[in-house]
Write a structure and sequence with these properties.
globular, cell wall biogenesis/degradation, 10 helices, alpha+beta, single chain, Barwin-like endoglucanases, Ribosomal Protein L25, Chain P, six-stranded mixed β-barrel, 22% helix
């Protein structure tokens, strides 16, 4: 690996309130995710110093956008608890205060404010995600008949009445109350496609292509190119609580894509098969029972789970139990394009465990290609406020 700085691709309410779940990662059908380090949080994992911060090969053109992304995060991380257990709110006061008025070398900012820390041996695995652009319309029209639903009012969290009290641990499951007043699972994808929500849930917009919309749902946000040329940005509002199935893996196991076929194990290969086999496409898509709901955004970029806009080659999705939101991360990966500084601003449904990252690539054809093929191993260094490791390991 050579060190090349280039960068690749909730709500928490009590009781019965609906709580969006994180989006899944890019489904290439080929990614074999390593087993996570067996620890509940980074604080319970083995921590050790990384390389001396002065030896890190930061570059100005890499550090400058990372500094801007870090500054955008400060309004959030100064007022929320770090679920990784590594930092306290007060730890971020010095770097956030320095960032607010920093006007000199951005490389010096990171070297003056942070130290490097490794979780476990630092062995990292990275995938990529992007912001798709598909055809859509604000109103239903010929050629635009795939509903982009807003968050349903009847999607709630609750414990089934017949569930023993002793088994009610963690967050209550997502579901709905049926006509008999019983708490049941929410509608799955096949039921929603068949019209289970018609006339019951607000529609944010209408998409033209169900396959393209399927992959936009996996990404959790995207752009709709409207008939008049205007672009509408939509972002993640919630999920139906049903299980996510990576259709790429299912298709590979059935011999539909991959070795011995004309379809590669990539997002592009999955789409090509679905296009060539329209009579079977719906059944394959419905293997994934998950459905994502959206809201319209007027932000400069899509919103990550930190509730700040994420930008190409700046933002990375992490497991917040192992990486503090807002923390800089330095990746040195086999795929050199993923090397460099990232800021932890998002998470994902399968981004679990230490040193697991999903890199954001923005929008456009190249973003789609890079994110769809990103699957790389390497080493990760967390950048934490100076003195953090000494406090944790006296």
């Amino acid at each position: 690996m050579r060190i090349l700085a280039g960068l690749a691709a909730a709500f928490s309410l009590a009781g019965c309130a609906a709580i969006p779940d994180a989006r899944p990662p890019m489904d290439t059908g080929a990614v074999e995710v390593p087993e996570p380090i067996p620890a509940d949080t980074a604080l319970a994992a083995t921590l050790s110093p990384g390389p001396a911060i002065d030896t890190m090969p930061f570059a100005g053109w890499d550090a400058a956008p990372a500094l801007a992304a870090f500054k955008r995060s400060c309004d959030k991380i100064l007022y929320r608890d770090d679920t990784s257990g590594l930092t306290r709110r007060v730890d971020w006061q010095a770097p956030c205060g320095a960032a607010a008025n920093w006007s000199s070398d951005p490389v010096l900012f990171f070297k003056s404010q942070f130290e490097t820390v490794m979780v476990g041996d630092g062995s990292a695995f990275a995938t990529g995600y992007y912001e798709p652009e598909i055809l859509g319309s604000r109103t239903r029209a010929p050629g635009y008949d795939v509903p982009v639903y807003a968050m349903p009012e009847d999607l709630v969290r609750a414990w089934p009445a017949d569930m023993p009290e002793a088994e009610r641990t963690g967050r209550p499951p997502l579901g709905r109350y049926d006509e008999n007043g019983d708490f049941v699972q929410y509608y799955e994808r096949s039921e929603i496609v068949a019209g289970a929500l018609d006339g019951k849930v607000p529609v944010v917009a209408w998409a033209a292509d169900p396959v393209e919309f399927f992959f936009l749902q996996i990404q959790g946000s995207g752009l709709l190119r409207l008939p008049d040329g205007e672009v509408m940005r939509i972002g993640y509002a919630g999920q139906n609580g049903r299980e996510y199935v990576a259709i790429g893996r299912t298709m590979r196991e059935r011999g539909l894509i991959g070795d011995g076929t004309e379809y590669p194990t990539s997002m592009q290969g999955i789409i090509a098969w679905l296009r060539d086999n329209p009579s079977q496409a719906d059944a394959i898509l419905n293997e994934n029972k998950s459905w994502i709901f959206f809201r319209e955004l007027d932000t400069e970029g899509p919103l990550g789970s930190l509730e700040v806009p994420v930008f190409r080659q700046d933002s990375v999705a992490v497991d917040p139990k192992f990486v503090p939101y807002g923390a800089p991360v330095y990746l040195d990966m086999e795929a050199d394009v993923a090397d460099g500084l990232w800021i932890a601003q998002d998470t994902g449904g399968a981004i679990k465990g230490a040193n697991r990252f999903d890199t954001f690539w923005g929008n456009g054809a190249d973003a789609r290609e890079i994110a769809g093929g990103m699957s790389s191993r390497g080493t990760a260094y967390l950048l934490l406020p100076k003195g953090t490791l000494a406090r944790l390991k006296p």
